[in-house]
Amino acid sequence: MIKTLFLTTLLFCTSSFAQEHIESREIGPGSYRQIEMLRLSGEKTLELTAGVSRQFQVLSTVMGRAGSYRRVIAPTVWSVSPKLDGVSLDSKGLLTVAANVRPTSFTITAEVTIKEEWEPKGYGAKVEQPVIVFDPKEKPLVGLWYQVRTLPSWTPWKAMAAPTESIAPRG
Prior knowledge:
four-stranded mixed sheet; mainly beta; 37% strand
């Protein structure tokens, strides 16, 4: 019972932070003052399997809305370190991890130039995103999970002992 409670609590607590909501309004020239904290995703460390692609974009947190982000439109230079065979990142932030990449870790870096038209000199910001590539056969519990169904809210004790069918790996 204690293990089930811990696992349920852990999944509940981490899933709310892993879900990113990108608002339709963007932050671009003329509205850069709205930038708060820059990120590349809603996750602290992104966990991916080999053989996937993911589009990254520079995001800013939105004050008063936990988990909400706005896309920042600004000149950006993308890079991956260390450089790995089978891992590529294009000039628009599209990460591709080849199917033959073994479990590894690397960091995506976006160097953003924030400059309003009327400013004589802008400023640069460096945003980093740690990425872990894992093999789901070796570590089946790694990665993001999402809720498949919801139990009635009036049965909290049943929710703590929910069967594992109520969650599934994202992918």
